[in-house]
Amino acid sequence: MPTVAAARSLASQPFQLRPFEGRLGAEIEGIAVSAIDDATFPAVYDAFLAHQLLLFRDQDLPPGDQVAFARRFGQVQVHVMNQYHAGAHPELYTLSNVGPDGRPNGKHPDRGTLAWHTDGSWQRHTTKATMLYAEVIPSCGGGTGFADMYSAFEAMPTDEQERLAKLHAIHNLDFSRNRRHGDEPMTDAQRKAAPPVEQPVVRTHPETGRKAMYLGDHAERIVGMGYDEGRAFIDGLNERIIAVCRTYFHDWRPRDLMVWDNRCLLHKAGTYDLANEPRVIRRCTVLGDTPS
């Protein structure tokens, strides 16, 4: 929930904040992203920290403007998977099943997005926020689910919280890519640029001070466990945390913009008819800190 200072800040701003049912996420109404200036952005950021994900509907957001808005949150990532870069804007990661002929090609652009994950957990300096903009949306399916890792940690018994807080996992983009996209593996250069990293299984959010589970599909093994034991542990714990946490599922509309906090949320994409329904989403990711 917002602090008293944040609530006052929000109350004085030229937009309305509508929390979602279940209070995971909120919609910001009454303002265009292009109108968010230096005076307005602190209240938007307060809402981002308080609600974990923010939705802006019906936004006219050209690629360059999306990058500019993302930069208000921090340094923007240029993703190591450069085959997804969006032309003149390498900061954008394009998720599209539309072929050169303008028709759906039946191919999922990134099957890793279909599993619960947090963007950039495979980096030493992980990501703060992800921003998706919906250009083209299928008539059915293709939504995005979000899972609150604050509530996942808080649902654990105290003794288990203490035990999990002592564990570390190895996160590895090459592992998760091969697991979901073995037919399109990373190049040698991409693997070299994204070596496996060790992350805590429970992290402390650097701004809110709250503890959150930190796993997802990029987590390959547990430090100090045998590989098979660690794999079973991660798979089982990933299932448990999704079962006990708060969730929100978003049905996209064209021109929706969503920004969320990767430090306390997992997310995954929903399925849709790849062969007949086009879906084009632009992603921009903001770099963060080293988890602790």
Describe the protein's topology:
Elements: H1 4-11, E1 16-19, E2 26-29, H2 41-51, E3 53-56, H3 63-71, E4 85-86, E5 89-96, E6 127-136, E7 144-148, H4 149-154, H5 158-164, E8 168-171, H6 173-181, H7 188-193, E9 197-200, E10 202-204, E11 211-213, E12 219-222, H8 227-244, E13 247-250, E14 257-261, E15 265-269, E16 280-287
Parallel strand pairs: 2-3
Antiparallel strand pairs: 1-2, 3-14, 4-5, 5-16, 6-14, 6-16, 7-13, 7-15, 8-9, 8-12, 10-11
Helix pairs in contact: 1-2
Give short descriptive properties of this protein:
292 residues; alpha+beta; Double-stranded beta-helix; 8-stranded mixed β-sheet; 3-stranded antiparallel β-sheet; 16 strands; 26% strand
Short description:
The protein is built from eight helices and 16 strands. It has helices spanning 4-11, 41-51, 63-71, 149-154, 158-164, 173-181, 188-193, 227-244, and strands at residues 16-19, 26-29, 53-56, 85-86, 89-96, 127-136, 144-148, 168-171, 197-200, 202-204, 211-213, 219-222, 247-250, 257-261, 265-269, 280-287.
Commentary on this structure:
- With 292 residues, this protein is of the alpha+beta class.
- It has a single domain, classed as Clavaminate synthase-like (Double-stranded beta-helix), CATH 3.60.130.10.
- The protein is built from 8 helices and 16 strands.
- The strands form 4 sheets. It has an 8-stranded mixed beta sheet with strand order 1-2-3-14-6-16-5-4, with helices on one face.
